[in-house]
Amino acid sequence: MTTIQSSEPVCHTSVTGLLPIVGSVFLGFLAVGLPLAALPIEMRDHLGCSPATIGATIGLQSLATLATRHRAGTLSDQHGPRRAVLIGLPVAALSGLAYLFAGSLPVGPDATLAILIFGRLVMGLGESLFLTGLMSWGIARLGADRTGKVMSWTGMRSMPPSVRERLWDWRCSLPSDSWVLAAPSSWRRYSPGQLLS
After folding, report:
1. Same domain assignment for residues 137 and 75
2. Count H helices, E strands: the chain?
């Protein structure tokens, strides 16, 4: 089993230990999420891309994240989580520059699409690095015995607030000893549209 080593002392309270981590996760996912509203419209209206091309281009980020997550973890383990974060956040910002260039350079639709694809791939790498590094850093700050708390705080920040609130309401309404058995019937309380509204 690998232990996470950190030069900083382990914090004793969750709030002081995780607030900078949760804030960084928020900013990182802001960079991940903001382009999702504009890219499909830009690709459809200005580049004339098909829905399949748009979906594949948007999905490339997740594929890149999946493909690079192991290397990000190795980097974090070997060189410390701080290095992974300090590489990952600027790499994620580089994808924003790619989007800016795609919209402002006087090139054809194919070149613009290639720049957007590059931006999606770079964002996937950046997300792997910053998210893996931030989770490892949070564990190093709070200690290995609070790994679950770090994972839940950083993971829940990536979920939209309305979904978090509804899931929390749903979970709190169930008896503590039967939530696994009751889950399928309780899920019908909210339609998918209600969960995401």
Report:
1. yes
2. 8, 0
